[in-house]
Write a structure and sequence with these properties.
It contains 11 helices and 20 strands. With about 375 residues, the protein is α/β, with parallel strands linked by helices. The protein folds into 2 domains: about 300 residues, Aldolase class I (TIM Barrel, Alpha-Beta Barrel), CATH 3.20.20; about 60 residues, Alpha-Beta Plaits (2-Layer Sandwich), CATH 3.30.70.20. α2 packs across α3 and α3 packs parallel to α4.
């Protein structure tokens, strides 16, 4: 039987799929819905010493349902998500008096999220601890580009509370590792990453920005953010000894598995829950379980960090290696042929049948790997694995 449970800093989660600080964790009722939807733990929306004044409109999908075409061939549909959200617009007093208690009533671990300055966390940390939360995540979203203020926030919070604390780092940093190392002495884990920005998206029908923030700016999340998030998770996992929780672009179990293979102990979901609802937590957890079972793994520990050995400081190879084709898997769809800018793929008919499959023209192949990554049946592969 596959074991999805995970323990982080002494906190036991029934599965590794947690809520993230944001609209889907906006109050106690929303957190209760997340628990019913199958979340393994509950991270509440960030609070600060004063309620946020959130600009409206504050959420928008980027290029909704826009197909990505490969040389005229519709291949995938993808999107990003923007927000100009801030911290909670609910006064912290109400969170302490009511919202955390509602969340705790689910029986799941509850992590408060607070920000942003040393003075803020020194005040709020002890209050949320007394409210009975199991841990505290602190946001560094508005702290800046210098690791020292971030470390000061971490140090101040560590000195203010006894329960586990987690630093949530932002991807706008030029190098995220120094920030991870700066907070490591004070925290029990690191959450990576927050949204990316600022960004701007304009409605070309009106010429107006879609968001109501200053200058129309917002912050990017969703599938477009996942490769950045996974890179940050991997870099932090290699650099520190404390557990890492991955956030960014998780819409399905395979997205979560990717974060875990990069070193994450658990994951958080925000954008997916906005778009799908609280049932996404249980669905993703079930898909993780199915992936582990289908691949012969017994627990999350079997895959955690397994990709890190393939991430050396220097490239593994700089010479071209032509992909091979598993003719049994190849359906002859032609996506790879259309995608190849080097004209190194052609469709050929098998001698013993009239079925067509793709063939690599070795002398033209640059070894770029696009055909391998885009093949829907994984028929194309590099012989070295």
């Amino acid at each position: 039987m596959v074991d999805l449970s995970v323990e982080i800093a002494g906190i036991r989660f029934r599965n590794p799929v947690l809520t993230a600080a944001g609209p889907p964790s906006r109050d106690g009722e929303a957190l209760v819905e997340a628990a019913r939807g199958g979340a393994g733990g509950l991270v509440a929306k960030t609070i600060s010493v004063r309620p946020a004044e959130v600009p409206r409109p504050c959420m928008a999908v980027v290029d909704r349902d826009r197909p990505v075409k490969i040389r005229g061939f519709p291949a995938y549909t993808t999107y990003g998500f923007l927000n100009s959200e801030l911290w909670s617009d609910i006064p912290y007093q109400r969170w302490i008096e009511r919202e955390y208690a509602l969340a705790k009533g689910t029986g799941l671990p509850v992590i408060a999220s607070i920000g942003y300055t040393p003075e803020d966390v020194a005040k709020l940390g002890p209050l949320v601890e007394r409210a009975g939360v199991d841990g505290i995540e602190f946001s560094t979203h508005y702290v800046g580009f210098d690791p020292k203020p971030v470390a000061e926030v971490a140090k101040t919070l560590r000195e203010s509370v006894e329960i586990p604390i987690f630093a949530k780092l932002s991807p706008h940093l030029p190098d995220i590792v120094p920030f991870a190392k700066a907070v490591e002495p004070y925290v029990d884990g690191i959450v990576a990453i927050n949204t990316y920005g600022p960004t701007l998206h304009i409605d070309v029908e009106t010429g107006k920005p879609l968001l109501g923030g200053r200058y129309g700016y917002g912050w990017l999340s969703g599938p477009a953010l996942k490769p950045i998030a996974v890179r940050c998770v991997a870099e932090i996992s290699k650099a520190v000894r404390v557990p890492v929780i991955g956030v960014g672009g998780i819409l399905c179990g395979r997205d979560a598995v990717e974060h875990i293979m990069a070193g994450a102990y658990a994951v958080q979901i925000c954008t997916g829950a906005i778009l799908e609802g609280p049932g996404i937590y249980g669905r993703v957890a079930k898909e993780i379980e199915e992936f582990l079972r289908e691949h012969g793994y017994d627990s999350l520990e079997d895959i955690r960090g397994m990709a890190l050995k393939w991430l050396p400081e220097k490239p593994l190879r700089t010479v071209a290696l032509a992909p091979e084709v598993d003719v049994e898997r190849c359906t002859g769809c032609g996506i790879c042929e259309r995608a190849c800018v080097y004209h190194a793929i052609e469709m050929v008919e098998l001698a013993d049948s009239r079925r067509k499959v793709s063939k690599t023209v070795v002398e033209k192949c640059y070894g770029c790997g696009l055909c391998v990554s885009i093949c829907p049946t994984r028929a194309r592969y590099f012989p070295e694995g």
